[in-house]
Amino acid sequence: MIRKEASTGAGPARTALRTLVGIALGVFVRLYLATLRVTVIADPLLDRSDARPWILCFWHGEQLPLLRFPRRRATVALVSHSADGQMQAYALRVQGLRVERGSSSRGGARGLVAIVRRLEGGEDAAFALDGPKGPREKVQPGAAAAARHAWGLVVPMGSAAPRGITLQRAWDQFRVPFPFSRVAVRLGAPLEGTASDEEIGRAVSRASELASHDVRVLGSARNAVLRRARRT
Questions:
Q1: Between vectors from CA 161 to CA 155 and to CA 167, what angle results, nearest 5°?
Q2: Half-sphere exposure of residue 14, counting CA atoms within 13 Å on the CB side?
Q3: Residue 25: alpha-carbon gap to chain centroid
Q4: 111 within 8 A of 102, measured Cβ to Cβ
Q5: What residues contact residue 179 under an 8 Å CB cut-off, 6+ apart?
Q6: Distance (Å, whole) CA 229 – CA 232
Q7: Dihedrals φ, ψ of 228, to 5°?
Q8: C-alpha 182: how far from chain center
Q9: Could you tell me which of 205, 193, 104 has the C-alpha nearest to residue 146?
Q10: pLDDT tens readout for residues 173-220
Q11: pLDDT per residue over 128-169, tens digit each?
Q12: Which domains does the chain have, with CATH numbers?
């Protein structure tokens, strides 16, 4: 009887612990993100006043700095049903994102339906194209279907920083810019909801390449200003 009672209480206890860890992680990430010097560069074809919902797409390993992107309206993200997903859901809520639970492998159809409803209700959505388990930079189903069903626009995103840590053993080679470092966030030209997975993947890779170029240009401009300041 004693063992049975302990087992019965373990589930709620673990859930409560994951909730607390997720909230604590979210607060830590929010404080860390506040240190980054983020420059957002958007393609001229991207109109923030367009009433159609945006489906923001990016590679999983670049998502951390993208949390600093000034979202134009409420944005929802799809998070897996796993234990890690539970913590991530609370951490993302601390960043101001709304969350629906589901993935391509478990609860994916229900999660996608919930996302489409949110899009139709006037929200935008954020998708890690290759998440949550990869393979790296291989498009998983979801984003294109959401854009198609909600008559939305696919907005490719990328981020880059000159200094940081890459988690080489992680499947996505997750990148963490050093605190107080400069970060470039690039938003590419929007794609219609009829775009294929391959077209979306190429557009997101291009946004990542442009972000890498942007951060080099920003660094060069800053160094030039510093050199002129020293001369004077």
A1: 95
A2: 10
A3: 16
A4: yes
A5: 32, 35, 36
A6: 5
A7: -65, -35
A8: 18
A9: 193
A10: 999 999 999 999 999 999 999 999 999 999 999 999 999 999 999 877
A11: 999 788 899 999 888 999 999 999 999 999 999 999 999 999
A12: 11-231 (3.40.1130)
